[in-house]
Design a protein that fits this description.
By secondary structure, the protein is of the alpha/beta class. The chain is about 40% helix and about 15% strand. The chain is built from 15 helices and eleven strands. The protein has an eight-stranded parallel beta sheet with strand order 1-9-8-6-5-4-3-2. A three-stranded antiparallel beta sheet has the order 7-11-10, with no helix packed on it. Strand 8 (about 170-175), helix 9 and strand 9 form a beta-alpha-beta unit. The radius of gyration is 18 Å and the shape is globular. The mean pLDDT is about 95. It binds flavin mononucleotide. Flavin mononucleotide (FMN) binds next to strand 3, strand 7 and helix 10. Flavin mononucleotide binds near residues 146 and 178.
Length: about 290
């Protein structure tokens, strides 16, 4: 059987056959997903998010260490600042790509380079892209406002990608709302070196999502998401307020939309959310 190949200059550098990267997604993109994506010819990323721990990272890395394919690791900057050992463990695993997003400290870039590791970060404006290149980051992930999970909802994916490519001399991956071969073709045609897919892979059986979450993702339409801080506030995750997340719309998001300050002091709402994962909360008829 011949294997599919669709290369860009960047995929050749990375030693992969397809311009597809699974986005590092805390609680969703573990080692099993990363291994499956890398074995299929893309670049699998082991992701650790707000609730990252050194033990969990080590456990998920078991799936990819020793594999005969490149893999990556993605961490969250403000979480690494709180738990620096995450970076030590990530560097020791010698991923081909290390991505750290949503942080202010760029010292990790030089530490990764010292280990021969290629670095990436997610950016949401041209200014942030220029700053990342100045700090030495090798690969930019232009993450548009359509993106699932956390990110600064500043600019749509295509306009951001185009503006960053015009301004910055570095490989740029496109992220945000890409979930079909048409979407992949569009960003490659615009000049992206690869696509960085999150939500699409969250619906795969290899992801750490529950069957219920996968069903909810697959059943959702293009108007079923919302950008919100409600889950962060309810879970006490200290994400900066300028970085909300895009999630499936449900009765919880509808109830607390634009009322996050009130939610912060409503302990009963916190408890009820902790007892019921977001995708089990029914959606009201539109
Ligand atoms: C459930 C979920 C969790 C995420 N967690 C992280 C994370 O821990 N670290 C990170 O850098 N990005 C995270 N992201 C953002 C992705 O890296 C990426 O920007 C986004 O998924 C791209 O948009 P898409 O979901 O429309 O493909 C997450 C995204 C999702 C959907």
């Amino acid at each position: 059987m011949t294997s599919v190949q669709l290369t860009t200059a960047w995929t050749t550098t990375m030693g992969i056959r397809l311009p597809i990267v699974n986005a590092p997604m805390g609680g969703v993109a573990g080692g099993a997903l990363a291994a499956a994506v890398s074995r299929a010819g893309g670049l699998g990323m082991v992701g650790m998010g707000s609730a990252a721990s050194v033990g969990h990272l080590r456990q998920e890395l078991e799936h990819v260490l020793g594999m005969d394919h490149p893999f990556g690791i993605g961490l969250v900057g403000w979480v690494v600042a709180r738990e620096p050992e995450l970076l030590q463990v990530a560097l020791a695993a010698k991923p081909t790509l290390l991505s750290i997003s949503f942080g202010d400290d760029s010292s990790w870039v030089h530490r990764a380079h010292d280990e021969g590791i290629i670095t990436a970060t997610q950016i949401s404006t041209v200014q942030a892209a220029e700053h990342a290149v100045e700090t030495g980051v090798d690969v930019l992930v232009a993450r548009g406002a359509e993106g699932g999970g956390h990110g600064e909802p500043a600019v749509g994916t295509l306009p951001l990608l185009a503006a960053v490519l015009d301004q910055v001399c570095a490989p740029v991956l496109a992220a945000g709302g890409i979930s079909s071969s048409r979407g992949l073709a569009a960003v490659l045609a615009a000049g992206a070196s690869a696509a960085w897919l999150g939500t699409f892979f969250a619906a795969c059986p290899e992801a750490m999502t529950s069957p219920g979450a996968r069903r909810a993702l697959l059943a959702a339409s293009e108007v079923d998401t919302v950008t919100t801080r409600a889950f962060d506030v309810a879970h006490d995750y200290p994400w900066p307020t300028r970085i909300p997340e895009r999630a499936l719309r449900n009765d919880f998001t509808r109830r607390w939309l634009d009322r996050e300050d009130e939610l912060a002091t409503d302990h009963q709402a916190h408890r009820s959310l902790r007892m019921r994962p977001p995708w089990t909360i029914p959606r009201s008829p539109q």
